[in-house]
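Run log // design_07
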């Protein structure tokens, strides 16, 4: 089973949904997800906010943060993930931002990428309730950097969903066995 299918399966098992915010990947994460059969059970949609001002306007990323650090920043990635989750009414949000090349951007070299996942609001910091960001330094050409960014955000999402599944299973086991 490929990563996208696994992510969608884990989401469907929980009755959860996903929304995606993309910058450097330009829709590749969404396209990868919808290639998997049954994607409509869990995938709500995506926002491709390629231009920096759209990150603020459509996803609610803090304008001061964007002005001070630029769009290629871990906190921007996390705010993109939380923003798309909230705006598209999903349980989970995922985001990609970075520099695919050929030129540096916002003082960041080509291959600098941040992928982020924001879990359901109000959950414990465990399974990404507060969110998680991965910093990547990727090599290769533009297409390779974009493909690896897609793979990385799906991998991060898969890990967090699997962690949440394990935490929920432990909690249910504890409840059924009457204590700790």
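design_07 sequence
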């Amino acid at each position: 089973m490929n990563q996208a299918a696994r992510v969608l399966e884990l989401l469907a098992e929980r009755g959860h949904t996903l929304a995606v915010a993309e910058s450097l990947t330009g829709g590749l994460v969404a396209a990868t997800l919808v290639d998997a059969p049954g994607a409509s059970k869990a995938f709500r949609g995506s926002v491709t906010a390629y231009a920096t001002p759209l990150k603020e306007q459509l996803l609610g990323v803090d304008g001061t943060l964007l002005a001070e650090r630029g769009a290629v920043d871990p906190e921007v990635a996390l705010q993109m993930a939380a923003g798309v989750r909230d705006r598209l009414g999903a349980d989970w949000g995922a985001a990609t931002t970075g520099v695919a090349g050929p030129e540096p951007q916002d003082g960041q070299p080509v291959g600098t990428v941040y992928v982020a996942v924001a879990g359901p609001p109000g959950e414990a910091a465990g399974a990404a309730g507060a969110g998680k960001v991965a910093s990547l330094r990727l090599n290769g050409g533009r297409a390779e950097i974009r493909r690896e960014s897609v793979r990385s955000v799906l991998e991060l999402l898969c890990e967090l969903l699997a962690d949440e599944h394990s935490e929920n299973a432990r909690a249910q086991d504890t409840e059924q066995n009457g204590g700790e």
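The first strand starts at residue 18 and ends at 22.
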